[in-house]
Write a structure and sequence with these properties.
17 helices; signal; elongated; single chain; Glyco_trans_28_C; hexosyltransferase activity; Rossmann fold; 7-stranded parallel beta sheet; transferase; alpha/beta; TIM Barrel; 3 domains; 17% strand
């Protein structure tokens, strides 16, 4: 399996560090991994067994994630965007991945949305589409506006196979920081926290206070406060570990303030060992830092980064402080004196104050990525199976006849507009199943000028089945009443919608009492459409054309049904000697269902082994103007 991970760290290095851990885990499982990094190069990053592709790097200043800067000091412009985008796409083409992972996007990195969108489009343009997964930490920065959350959810539902949430829902569910809608919820795949091998918690603590601030410049204010606080502390030895993203001039300033109880170093690869033996840790509350604390069990002072409306670290720190696992010192209250007081409070915390969370995130992520790849292969095989059937029909000049039925239109809606626009765009005939007692004058006005046939969808789409029985409108009442209302419904629809209404009955929920069928012709019907393979072209004097392919998962949240199974079943149905019906329900389509329906209709409409017929042809009915009066 080949995996491409696209990540850009802009301030610290946490996103890249997590991507590196995931990459190493996948590589250790025998997979080929490429990490395409769009942030600044990070020294000492362990990428054993992982290929690194360095995109032209960008970073932000002062936590302003809307304005990004290149290494040459110029603002990110269209030329640099194009350069980064092409470099990322070149990596995609060369690696030819089975799985693509996007770190943070579409929940963030909006300033780089163009390159991520280009990558997502490339994924979907490949005939054998790779799996596409988003990768996010336990806490996201909450959206500034509700529409941003809705947009992210739409992209995930329509384009992504899942979202790897690198956290523990028992500790911090994603809902704590991000609105999780019904479309997003089933796509969240919790992995546990992604952590490297932590140094074992030490039974003997030293006197050292270890101050860290991640790999970027965000910790400078904390470092400067720690320099002064170290002079106020007469009992401890302080060590400040300065990330490699901090400019050399700032590092020299800090190092120049060292004294007999203060050591200033650059960040070291043995950080976890230092932490395990420290008396207190002073740090921000980024994802990786908190995991290090969880493994080491070290009492901690957390000073969350909160500039530029960032809330992620504050939410995480508040949770740990509320659980008695750390001392919270808000950044707005940071001073040498406050920091010294917080260190004293942390010394009083119990040993082993690490957070009890699931840190099996790497292993679980590997399993989920492998499963996504298998699912993508099955989908590709489903499309291939469909293609083989159609190719054979084209070669023998026996194109499969298909027709398109959509149920439950009643009034104008955005979904109906989208459905009709799709019909016009593809030029595929459409039959709308409309319940007579639900149809409105507004629907009739909206359908003027639209080339769509109308079928009779029962009476009022009401369920008359007793509790415990499958829903049914056409049953469980006196047959004479049902037949009378069906006849009245056909007449009412014709009065409202004209001669586009065909005398074809589509029972709601595709169910009808068998005793009613022989009587339908007497009340004006000439055709019947339910679901599944028909037993014959006619039934009790009625032409029969059923629907066969329904892409909606009705008993599992109404999202997209298993795509591979849907395609495999359709391939089998196309071998039948009958018109094959595609069934849609525009009112309940989510973005994934719309995407699949549009993709399937376009594929079938363009293939010489398939031909779409209108409802008149599907039921072998004459055009409306040729029908004999009844």
């Amino acid at each position: 399996m080949r995996v491409l991970i696209a990540v850009t760290h802009l301030l610290g290095v946490g996103h890249l560090a997590r991507a590196a851990l995931l990459g190493r885990g996948l590589a250790a499982a025998g997979h080929d991994v490429c990490v395409a990094s769009g942030g600044r190069p990070v020294p000492n990053l362990d990428l054993a067994g992982v290929e690194l592709v360095q995109l032209p790097p960008v970073h932000c200043r002062d936590a302003d994630f809307r304005t990004l800067w290149g290494e040459d000091g110029r603002m990110l412009d269209d030329a640099l965007r194009a350069y980064r985008r092409e470099a990322l796409l070149a990596a995609f083409r060369r690696v030819h991945p089975d799985v693509v992972m996007t770190e943070t996007y579409p929940f963030g990195r909006r300033s780089l949305a163009g390159e991520f969108e280009a990558l997502v489009s490339a994924v979907w343009a490949r005939p054998e589409r790779p799996a596409l997964l988003a990768s996010v930490r336990d806490i996201l920065n909450p959206p500034s506006r509700p529409d941003k959350a809705l947009q992210a959810e739409r992209i995930v539902v329509e384009r992504f196979d899942g979202v790897l949430v690198h956290g523990d829902p028992a500790a911090v569910p994603l809902e704590r920081s991000w609105p999780v809608g019904e479309g997003l919820r089933p796509r969240l795949l919790y992995t546990g926290y992604v952590s490297g091998d932590a140094a074992p918690a030490s039974a003997r603590r030293g006197e050292e206070i270890v101050v860290s601030g991640g790999g970027g410049i965000a910790g400078l204010t904390l470092f400067r406060a720690a320099v002064v606080a170290s002079r106020l502390d007469g009992s401890g030895r302080w060590r400040i570990l300065v990330g490699h993203g901090v400019p050399e001039a700032d590092f020299r300033e800090l190092a120049g303030a060292a004294h007999s109880r203060l050591v200033v170093d650059r960040a070291r690869p043995d950080f976890r060992d230092l932490l395990a033996h420290a008396s207190v840790s002073v740090s921000q509350s980024g994802y990786n830092t908190v995991l290090d604390l969880a493994g080491a069990g070290t009492p901690a002072v957390l000073v969350p980064f909160e500039e530029g409306s960032e809330q992620e670290q504050r939410l995480r720190a508040e949770g740990l402080a509320a659980a008695g696992r750390a001392v919270l010192l808000p950044a707005a209250e940071l001073s040498p004196e406050a920091l010294h007081g917080a260190v004293e409070a942390a010394r009083a915390l119990p040993q082993g104050a690490g957070v009890p969370v699931n840190t099996n995130g790497v292993a679980r992520s590997v399993l989920l990525v492998e499963e996504a790849a298998r699912r993508a292969r099955r989908i590709a095989q489903g499309w291939a199976a469909l293609g083989r059937v159609l190719d054979e029909r084209a070669a023998t000049r026996r194109p499969a006849a298909l027709w398109w039925r959509d149920d439950d239109a009643a009034e104008p809606t955005e979904a109906l507009d989208r459905l009709l626009a799709l019909r016009r765009h593809l030029g595929v005939p459409l039959a709308l199943a409309v319940s007579p007692r639900l149809a409105t004058d507004a629907l009739a006005q909206r359908l003027q000028g639209e080339d769509a046939a109308i079928l009779v969808h029962g009476i009022a789409h009401l369920n008359h089945a007793p509790a415990g029985e499958k829903r049914r409108e056409l049953g469980y009442r006196p047959p004479a009443d049902i037949l009378r209302e069906l006849g009245e419904g056909l007449a009412a629809l014709r009065q409202l919608l004209g001669d586009r209404v065909l005398p074809v009955l589509v029972p709601p929920w595709n169910r009808i009492d068998a005793a009613l069928v022989p009587e339908l012709a007497a009340v004006g019907y000439r055709g019947l459409s339910t679901f599944g393979a028909r037993s014959g072209a006619t039934r009790d004097g009625l032409a029969v054309a059923n629907a066969h392919c329904d892409p909606i998962l009705w008993h599992g949240g109404r999202g997209l049904a298993d795509e591979a199974e849907t395609l495999e079943r359709l391939a089998r149905d196309l071998a039948r000697d009958e018109p094959v019906g595609l069934l849609t329900h525009h009112l309940v389509h989510d973005p994934a269902v719309w995407r699949f329906v549009e993709q399937l209709l376009a594929y079938l409409g363009a293939h010489p082994g398939a031909r779409f017929v209108n409802a008149h042809a599907a039921f072998a009915l004459p055009p409306a103007h040729e029908e004999a009066p009844r």
